[in-house]
Amino acid sequence: MTRTAPTTPAPASVPEPSAVPGKGASASRDPGPARIALRRFLRHRLAVAGVLVLLALAVGCFGATWLAPSPRNAQDLLLGATPPSGAHLLGTDELGRDYLSEVLYAGRISLAIGLGVAVLSTTLGTVVGCVAGYFGGWVDEVTMRVADLFLVVPAIALLALAIQGLGSSPVTIVLVLAGLGWTVIARVVRAQVLSLREKEYVEAARVLGVPTVRILWRHLLPNLVGVVVVNVSLSVAAAVILESTLSFLGFGVQPPRSSWGNMLSQASGMVGTSQSYLLYAPGAAILLTVLAVNFVGDGLRDAFDPQGRH
Amino acid sequence: MTPTPPLLAVEDLTVRYRTDAGPVTAVDNLSFEVAAGSTLGIVGESGSGKTAASMALMGLLPRTAEVTGSARLHGQELLGRPDSAMRDIRGRRIAVIFQDALSALNPMMTIGAQLAEAVRVHDRSRSAGELRERAVELLDLVGIPSPAARLDQYPHEYSGGMRQRALIAMGIANDPDILVADEPTTALDVTVQAQVLDVIRRVQERTGTAVLLITHDLGVVAGLADRIMVMYAGAKLEEGGVEQIFYRPAHPYTRGLLAALPRIDRRLARLEPIPGQPPQPHDRPGGCLFRARCRHADPDRCTRPLPAPAEVSAGHLTSCVRVHEIASAG
Amino acid sequence: MVTYIARRLVYSVPVLALASFVLFWAVRTTFDPLAKLRQSHDPTVLARETARLGLNRSVIEQYGLWMKAFLTGDWGTSTRTGGAVSAMIGSALGSTLQLIGWGVLFAALLALAIGLYSAARQYSAGDYAFTALSYLGIAMPPFWVGLLLIQILAVWPQQQFHLAHPPLYFVGLHSPGHSGPDLDYFRHLVLPVLTMTVGLVASWSRFSRATLLESLTGDYVRTARAKGVPRRQILVRHALRNSLAPFVTVVAMDAALLFGGLVVTEQIYSVPGMGRLFLDSMLAGDVFTLVPWMFVVAVAMILFNLLADIGYALLDPRVALR
After folding, report:
1. Listed residue (C117, C121, C214, C234) closest to B90, CA to CA
2. Interchain CB distance below 8 Å, A165 and C16
3. Among B86, B88, B106, which would you mutate to test the C interface (most chain C Cβ atoms within 10 Å of its Cβ)?
4. Which of B84, B108, B178 to probe the C interface (max C CBs under 10 A)?
5. Which of A160, A279, A294 is nearest residue C138 as measured by Cβ atoms?
6. Per-residue pLDDT reduced to its tens digit, C143-193
7. Alpha-carbon separation of residue A110 from A103, A243, C135 (angstroms)
8. Which residues contact B11 (CB under 8 A, 6 or more apart)?
């Protein structure tokens, strides 16, 4: 498929594809618009703050082995549940585990699921949307009808059913959430591709005999970077919340694995008791993550879509 | 020349917008007068400041605009009034007809409701029946057939020309002293254009309102205006009676505009475009703003600060400092 | 209009058929309908039930049998409770509709009020405050909101002021012995309605602010100002009126999602609605309830989406449904 060194001379505006088309390759080769987008993003103060918060969360959670005050699951049954104090900043649970450490360790799964779902569902949706929009006809018809089906079935029910049937390991949860989440971005990408493929330069590339895959990769995808990147951030937020909701309902990550969702699920029994403080930290962690991701998403939207600014 | 004070007297009107890239001048030291019942045509390309000037009179510029100078209606200052005081003027003393009636009319309200609103805002005493009667009367005045039946229709049920007529009806609802017609025919077909201009003319005869006709189309002002003001990059380049402007244009820009106009009386076909572009609004050179595109430009005289437009004959002013040399050069 | 509605309903039949088949298949492959009976180790009963349900036939035939029974009003019996599925879904739908009705009404009015305020005073301190709150509302997991609300509005005041009962209840819709719309009902309703509306108010108020501000940039607003119409009147008569159609559409479409989407709220507050019914059936592997449940929810979603389009057409004179 990768036919390099085309026999027909490529238009001057089309740079040669590098041997290995890496992830950020197309952006770094073309510094103009990328740098403009970066500058716009950096001007969005909340978005920059969001990036910093996410970095801190990622370092804290994935570096928990070195950074957390206690090792994972270190119990102190004699101590039992204690409210937040100097020794245990977020207190301890009924097994005497340091709650801050538990929150950090649980964050690994929550964040990994969020990121995994976002990347997977966006990739899937972008590919489906591109194919549907570019080829049209029955391909488009079939994929879009399938996407429509997802509209009439309540998401939570479908997710619970799928996880019940397929098991609830974190990998399955990622696959199931991504399997449900691709429709949104697929619609957006399809609409964009539909209008882009009528553009003169795409027409021109087709007339010149540029292979279809190359047209999609070199001419259409770069135009979709904005919506795709924004979608990744929005789906991280949605996935983190959905995972926690599923865990709360008993369909998500199962103990002894812990995520913020199932920590909250366990703490939900503590409403109205002296241990109600256990409710706050995991929820706040989710809130902080989603808030930061949404700010980053806003910043990205502004960075890629200058017209959308007020 | 006129012993009675003019209806509207604008002096040194300047409009600047604050932007990220620094202040942008939209209207530059503009002065003009409008006599009661007369029609002043303001001609210029888009971006020449003609709309900004008229919106400044109504206090309808966005908050980023900074307006200085003076504009007196019947000797009463309009600029710098609070919005609540301007509301009383708008629609009653000065009314506007915007271009593109489709978007200028509220798509969710019937034409009748929008006409009634225009009247009721300034006269709370009228009953619903009276408002309806007045709305029918107004639609009839602008030549809409079976107005009573048309009253309850929505803008999208009207044709383009009828929408523009409805907008004119809304403008004259309170017998304003001045009717600002901002490109009233730009969005219309040529045949409909003529009809709409005819409506404006008839309305003016019936109500005696003065008209400020803003357009980029010299052909439109030719039949309607008493006087014409030519604007360029926010400044007045020339002003005079219709015949003065059309038969004895003084400014090279006006000449260029006329040369670019198709005319029936001259079969000689080449229309001459004016070369170049107007100056960028945030990068205004000193001196004559048109000199970069002017073939008569003098590197010395035209770069110096311009004096106020001077008379070349009675009532005919131009900002061009080389007007006499150009005239003798032909 | 009538032909439009009829055509939309006809179009939704194949969608429903396909969706229900996929769900039927998914539910049947996930759960064994005879799981309970297998514990009894009675081969004759097992064989009889297998034959009655057609379990030895292909999925398509099974689906056909089920659909035929379903359409003739025979929705089957729940393996979990032994009751008629139609009655269970009927009563669950009743509870859920109460939550949807109050919740959507409350959320829509509040969101519209916030949107109007924010649009009228764009970039004011109040506008920023509502913006910040809406970001919080969207970022909070709904079940966490519920737990916090119980803690803050029910448990804490009860403990603080040593009350016999919490000021707001958080179990069910009525106390034993109560029914109908009385004060007891109201005290039960506040927390679940608040829980389900936090996210709705947050996103709807953003939407209404955005559409109002967009309406305010319209040329017809400039025309109204040129007529001398006061700002407040422009906001209500012109901007609000013009943003109402998209707002109602969004509200109706989100409301459609609530039929099966109140799982969390109903679980937290033990409201015997559709979400609760789904969870219970799911945990018990009650396929005979799950399949009709999904069908009913899908129908409700389709109807509400149709309602959204009709609402739009009624509110916007430019749209004619044909």
Report:
1. C234
2. no
3. B106
4. B108
5. A294
6. 899 999 998 898 888 888 888 888 888 888 888 878 778 888 889 999 999
7. 10, 7, 20
8. B31, B69, B70, B71, B72
Spell out the residues 6+ positions from residue A150 whose beta carbon is closer than 8 angstroms to its own.
Answer: A158, A180, A183
Mean pLDDT of chain A: 79
- Whether ipTM tops 0.90, in short, is no
Token pair 């400039």 is at which residue? C222
pLDDT tens, residue by residue, A127-141: 999 888 888 888 888
Q: What is the DSSP letter of C77?
A: B
Which chains have 3+ CB pairs within 8 A of C?
A: A, B
Q: With residue C259 as reference, give the H or E element that holds it.
A: helix C241-261
Neighbours of chain B (3+ CB pairs under 8 A): C
CATH number of B8-93+214-329: 3.40.50.300
Interchain proximity C317–B104, CB inside 8 Å? no
Task: Give the per-residue pLDDT at C191.
Answer: 93
CA of C110 vs chain B CAs: smallest distance (Å) = 24
**Residue C259: which residues within 8 A CB-CB, separation 6 or more?**
A154, C96, C100, C274, C296, C297, C300, C301, C304
Pick from A157, A164, A291: CB nearest C135 = A291
Q: What is the pLDDT of residues C280-295, one digit of tens each?
A: 998 888 888 888 998 8
Q: What is the residue-averaged pLDDT of chain B? A: 87
Strands (E), A2-153: none
Q: How far apart are the C-alpha atoms of A289 and A287, rounded to whole Å?
A: 5
Shortest distance, CA A1 to any CA of chain C (angstroms): 35
Q: A with C: how many residue pairs have Cβ under 8 Å apart?
A: 126
Name the minimum distance, in Å, from the CA of C235 to any CA of chain A. 19
| Cα three-residue angle C24-C29-C32, rounded to 5 degrees | 100
Asked whether residue A9 carries a pLDDT value surpassing 60, the answer given is: no
Domains detected in chain A: 33-76+91-304 (1.10.3720.10)
Q: What are the tokens at B202?
A: 């008839």
Give residue C127's identity as a one-letter amino acid code.
Answer: D
Convert the pLDDT of each residue in A130-183 to its tens digit.
Answer: 888 888 888 888 888 888 777 777 777 888 888 888 887 888 889 988 988 888
